[in-house]
Hints:
Elements: H1 5-27, H2 38-62, E1 85-86, E2 94-100, E3 103-109, E4 112-113, E5 120-121
Antiparallel strand pairs: 1-4, 2-3, 4-5
Helix pairs in contact: 1-2
Amino acid sequence: MPLSPVAREQLRQEFHRKAEEAFESVFGSDEQEQLITFVQRESRVMERGQALEAWLLGQHLAADPLADPSAAECVRCPRCSKQGVRDAAEREPVPRRVISRAGKLELKRWKYRCPSCRTVFSPLGR
Length: 126
């Protein structure tokens, strides 16, 4: 399910703000005395680029419908394929930290359990 035009525009503006910050971090006049050697310059550019990559990936994952499937949507157990039930004890999606090629990310997914085989899982998606 794609983002609404308003949500997409808000993300675009946030991305542009973050890209501007990265640009200023590399080319801003206050930063130039800290960026003398090639290694210093490369490190700064790589750090800022990686931060933008991680932010984009995190936003894309957060927009995934499986980040918060509706109650009407059938979420299947990965073990037995029967319908899972959202874990009633969980008040919020459970944070999960992963290390990706873009860096460290935190995903939030609802926990489900299978009443049939008692597996606890989060929807994986396609």
